[in-house]
Amino acid sequence: VYANGLPVSMPEELPEGLSVMDLEDFVLQYPDLARKHLENMPELLGSDRLAAMNMALQHNGLVIMADREIPRPLEIFHFISGDNVAVFPYTLVITGTGGRLRILERHVSADHGMQFCGALQQHHLSSVSSVKYALVQELNARSRVVELSHITADDSAEMEHLTSHPGAAWARQETVCILTGDEANVRLLSANHLKERKELDQRTYQKHRYRGASSNLFYANVLDDDSVSIFSGMILVEEGAHDTSAYQSNRNLILSPQAEANSIPGLEILADRVQCSHGSATSSISPEEIFYLLSRGIPEQTARRMIAQGFLKHALDQFSDEAIRAAVENIVVP
């Protein structure tokens, strides 16, 4: 648990194979590992200066390492309070060969002050390791947030990465996924219900550098009132990354004539024997759907809410960890 970037509580007892420490202790205890993971800035999609600021101001970053299966999920809370407050949370996740982790991270406004959160998360998955990670941004409607996620996956590593942004007046999410090993498998998911004048800007990059890897992106947005969503995604299959499977789908459900959804999917293939697709779909609720539910005695507002819930749950249900998925649904699904 962190309050305005400062640690409030850390676990006293940890299962065997799990290490949780702040960034300073990590650098002192594991200098070679720290040099490997911290020496170079992660690849980003336009927010390099913010990431550099995050690292420069970082004194209480969180480092999580696992070299075996950890039975219980980890929860990370960053609470932000006060007016004109900026915090820069940093989370570094490193899994050794065979390590398995489940993590829920939440960034939460504790009051109605004007706040900014510039967060960076890095995930380094070694061979045959697995991470199931969910990030929920719950800042208040006066605040702004930038969430930067960087993922590297080695041979037969598996990653499920779920994000949701029910808070903040303006949010930007950048997710870079680099598959560097054979049979690596990454799933990128997002479910968002935007209301009022909220704006969500999501940028993604699925980069395949090695043959036989797979990635699958599914982002779903429900837009109401005057909200705006922007999605820009790219799949790159580099030379030699044959037998790749890569998919990308952005779907938007419009509930208001004033809402706006912008989607720019992209695909570049430089290898052979690949299965790749990308696409976008934006629609409103059809009169037939509303009529069907009205005919069964369901009020119109309830019917519209049920359709929106089902739309978001289609994305959430693809996250396989039941405990974390249920926690996210309680926050995200209206």
Keywords, separated by commas or semicolons:
10-stranded mixed beta sheet, alpha/beta, 6 helices, globular, 334 residues, 20 strands, 18% helix
How many DSSP E strands? 20
**Oligomeric state of the chains in view:** single chain
> Radius of gyration, rounded?
20 Å
Write down the secondary-structure element order. Answer: EEEHHHEEEEEEEEEEEEEEEEEHHH
Content-based structural category: alpha/beta
Number of domains: 1
Please list the strands of the largest sheet in the order they lie side by side. Answer: 2-1-5-8-10-12-14-16-18-20
3D shape: globular
Low-confidence stretches: none
Walk me through this protein's architecture.
The protein is α/β, with parallel strands linked by helices and 334 residues long. The protein has one domain (2-285). It has six helices and 20 strands. A hairpin with a 2-residue loop joins strand 1 and strand 2. It is globular, with a radius of gyration of 20 Å.
In short:
The protein is 18% helix and 47% strand. It is of the alpha/beta class.
Secondary structure layout:
Elements: E1 2-3, E2 6-7, E3 18-22, H1 23-29, H2 31-38, H3 48-56, E4 62-66, E5 74-80, E6 85-87, E7 90-95, E8 100-109, E9 115-125, E10 130-138, E11 144-153, E12 158-164, E13 170-179, E14 185-194, E15 199-208, E16 214-223, E17 228-237, E18 245-254, E19 260-269, E20 275-284, H4 287-294, H5 300-316, H6 322-332
Parallel strand pairs: 1-5, 4-7, 5-8, 6-9, 7-9, 8-10, 9-11, 10-12, 11-13, 12-14, 13-15, 14-16, 15-17, 16-18, 17-19, 18-20
Antiparallel strand pairs: 1-2, 3-4
Helix pairs in contact: 1-2, 4-5
